[in-house]
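note to self: the first set is below, dont mix up w the second
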Amino acid sequence: MTVLYQNISSKNSRQEQMSVFVESAMNEGITVYYLTGDASWGLDPDGDRLCEAVKDAVAYNRRIKRKFLARREADGKQWNTIPQLAGIVFDVEPYTLKEWDENPGKVMDSFVSGMKEAYALAQDYGLEVIVCIPFHYDNKGQQKGLEELIKNGCDSIAVMNYYRGAEVKNIATEVELASKYGKGLITIYELQKADGSSVKEINTYYNSGLAALERSYQSVLEAYPNQTISIAYHDYKALKEVLKK
């Protein structure tokens, strides 16, 4: 594991803990991103809450930097690198809202507009932006919005590719668009145990195991040799459970 997408509490008591955590992760060669988002954020075309999250990440990095500069002054130790959040991962799923059922095009336009605002702000501060998306935006008539999101709303897309056996087919459009605009692509595999509702057996590799997951990932790489495709697991707790099995 080389990258961790971590939710960070806004409470002051947790921020110091997270500072230590980010430092420890970097010492182990792990890059940390700030993971945040809520479906309701997709309803604001101005992206106010999305932009607030970017500012939170910026403020967090500033606090870490101040801390390490103060420590360097105190003990005279030279720090080659200061642990920083590499970027922000937005997990906003507006398609889960009732407003989406009523007017999906309007909600998609609003979400993309907000993401463009947040992305522009993040670029000003040198923060990478990754946006989580389902594999089905194009299948639900939202290919135009999907293209605009990839083109002008992020550095990379992380596709929740949660359907065993269909991983190659389900990201064909996303691969094409990521390649067209020079953006990164991450295929996310579900590892949580099926609960019969939000996670069905067909969605997860919890019982199939990591060997089957790896075979699937290899088939994705072979199908799209001209696009760099990274892999991510959802989530760390579930990964530990599967590894124990």
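second set (the one i keep forgetting abt)
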Amino acid sequence: MKVKVLLILLIVGLLVPFAQAQDEPVTITAWGHNYLPRVALDQEMIAAFMEANPHITVEYNPVPSDFYATLNTAMASGAGPDMFNQATSHHVEYYLQGMLAPVDPTAWGFGTIDEVRALYGSGDMAEGMLTGATYDGTLYGIPTEMSAYACYLNLDVWAEAGLDPAEDFPYTYEALPAVAEKMTIRDENGVITRRGFDFNWSAAIFMMLHFNPMVQQLGGDMIDEVNYVAHINTPEVRRVLEYWNNWANEWNLGGPEYVTSRTGIRSEERMGMECSMGNWAVPLLERAESFIPNWALYPQLRWEDAVNPNGFANYGFYWMVNASSSEAKQAAAWKLIAWLSSRPDRYLNEGGLFQPKIEYIESEEFKNNEVMKVFLDEIAVNYFHPRFAGFSEVIDALIRMRDRVVIAGEDIDTVLAETEEEVNAILQRAKTEF
């Protein structure tokens, strides 16, 4: 009997310090971009997390402006947060510098990373959802927002032009100019006052999210992310650049001088169709109801002779953990990330953000969501944009390429050759640096 009592006391004596160590107070910092619908939900979820885990304090910082530059500076200086919500375009350099901690399955109560992956399904679709944060077969992040683009239509504008999307939606780039022309209105000087459609000319990132996928449809790809080689002076890139140039200069249907297309469809311009917004745009359209009270969603356009099935690029944001943080902070961060990824229904319904967990995708609520059906179809056949070091420099070079032809009127073949040389130099320097 005495032996049994002593054994029990010994076990308790061992477990108490272990439990205390497990509950040792820890403070973690979490940064994200300042997307207000998500911020409000993050704040509520984090407050509930701290109540359930009183030993963990979370200092949450939705960076008010220039999130990417602020985070990059902090990470480079060693003062980065313990966890951060970063886009696929910007975290490859963190991986190459050893700044990312692999996903910790114990935060979900699992023993293996395969069990975490299973939360997002199986097969090509699941792999596609997690590809954005997977490097050399290791998963470094959990998706907070999986996005693809589709085409939003202002149905009133289509009707005014005598068009019915059920019969007249173009589906191909070859058919698009004629349809857009019917919805375009110009003043007496030929200046457009309403566009039927326009590309999103507003930022360099769209050269990877819009322009390059049009190249990929034709069988090309401007950047080889594995070998760090640019393929820009090609027939496929030339065809896409010539199309964008004709859109602005030959057909006079839009161009970089006009307000960004995302604003065009949500403002008094009442643009007829916009194809650079994700499912997150639904709340924006609801707030702009006076300008677009009736809208519909259609798939991305493809070339008639496309050899690949993709529309525009997939991209995403992922919660990631700083490898420089202590083990205790990393464990607490992954525990919070598991918590923040536990309510995909709320993040979609309240924030317009798609967290692609298979249990939610297979729910009746999700299956009845007509908007998400279109985007899920797009995600299933799209590619992630290329991920590589030097990303910002490369896309800046690509937008200069575009503008040298479309705005400055330079010779397209000369511009393509010079841009390929410039981008290859950037890639080789980036490959060496990282």
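remember for set 2: The chain has 20 helices and 14 strands.
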